[in-house]
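One-letter codes give the sequence; the fold follows as tokens. An example follows:
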Amino acid sequence: MIYITGDTHGQHDFAKIKTFAYECNIASKDDYLIIAGDFGAIWNEKTLKQDLKPYEDLPFTVLFVDGNHENFDLLNSLPVETWNGGKIHRIRNNIIHLMRGQVYEIEGKTFFTFGGATSIDKIYRTENVSWWKEELPSYSDMQEADENLKRVNYKVDYIITHSCDERALYYPPLLNRNFQADKYPENSMLSYFEENVEYKHWYFGHYHLDGNLTDKKTVLYNEIIEIK
């Protein structure tokens, strides 16, 4: 079984995961919960062990794309390996970072992943302490994505990102937010995939909202839904 939710920010928004683990019937590491960015538990090297323990104790495997609130120095220092057809950082046996621009096959379904976003609060943060410039996807990330999408003829079952494409900003519930006119570089980057990739459904987080923008695009925060 594969489930997906929005940002968790370390333990700040972990309660929804804890409740879900208690209420659902998932009891196998072969079942998956995907977090659409801002995992947030890769933040402080000194407290890393305790920050990860609540996730490590879950009965299922946690997969996440990176958001803008991650310690990229720490995350990118980890060895890269291949898992289910794409590159990953294996944080723990049941905690896996799905890297940018990868295509994975999970339970017979294909997933394209592309993390990253702009921190709108970075003026209040300190570079390389509480904010990292690597939060924003790079040209090499786009190249990596394009090469991997070519292998599957630009056709996948699901797209998992942290932010969204430009067009999505003009659909409710994103249209109704206070900063609906704000666009950032990653929105333009993600528009490339909207225009060129054939997909069944696109899930993303970042905006702290839950709702279906269209019948093919969903923003998530507190909700945890099954990918069927």
Observations:
- The mean pLDDT is 95.
- Helices lie at 15-23, 48-56, 72-76, 139-151, 185-196.
- The two ends are 8 Å apart (CA to CA).
- The chain has one domain: 2-227.
